Amino acid sequence: AEKYFQVALASGGDDRADSRTYNILIRAASRAGRPEGAQDYLAAMEYRGVDPSPHTYTAVVLAAAHSGEVAAAEGLLGEMAARFALPPDRHTFHALLKAYADRGLWEKAVAALRAMAVQGLRPDAYAYAIALDACANARNLPAARELWDEMRSPEGGNVTRPSVVAYNTLIKAAVRAGRTGEAHAVLAAMPGEGVPPDTTSFTTVMGAYASSGAPEDRAPVERLFHEMALRGAPPGRVTYHTLMKACVRRGEYRKALRYLRRMGSSGGDGEGGGGAGAGD
């Protein structure tokens, strides 16, 4: 995308470039891991008299977030309001929250949720899931619990139904805090809440049991594996690796080999982790 744009510039064809063109270039720079390129295109828009849109700033903030440039992401959010009178939209806040979550900056993530409400944007399930991920990465389970209760609170009539990603992130927070039993309880509650657990849900809890030094914590790994089949959650490679790890720790090498063969025959291509609440 950048190559063709440079050709257009050289031939004088940039006069037709509008905000959508620049947005595409900014997203391309972001995906290429070049946040400085994204910001250069933003500066080029101003130089050529092309007004940025909220989508433009969302793309630049996301580029900074992917590179861990938290201060740059915050500055861009302030700039869009101060210089262009552009209110950040839901997607812009999601991008900023992602920057905080990746660094475990849970207090800033909670503040961003509050800022969304001030802007008249009710935090959605995805925003809460990213903020929960910030708590999980900070290993702050109490803060994650508070956000979880807030999300489900009927206060003001604004109940946000947790998504499977939000549930997975709460499971991740419990696992990282060393509370495997609590993580399992969250998993067990999901069907009753109308949210079917997915591969990530099961694999994260299985991983916690498999990594435990307690012998009694290894048996639940296989039980959860069989429950996955009953729930229609396909096991992924990480799931099989976790299962084999538990078998090896129990000295059940033949069983581990059987699971290895089963993984090969099934392909083992299901998601073993992903989303805001992916387990490590």
Automatic annotation (TrEMBL):
Pfam families reported in the protein's UniProt record: PPR, PPR_2, PPR_long
PPR repeat coordinates: 18-52, 89-123, 163-197, 198-235, 236-270
Gene3D superfamilies: Tetratricopeptide repeat domain (1.25.40.10)
Residue span(s) of domain PROP1-like PPR: 22-138
Keywords, in A-Z order: Repeat
Any GO molecular function: mRNA binding
PANTHER family: PENTATRICOPEPTIDE REPEAT-CONTAINING PROTEIN 1, MITOCHONDRIAL, PENTATRICOPEPTIDE REPEAT-CONTAINING PROTEIN 2
Protein name: PROP1-like PPR domain-containing protein
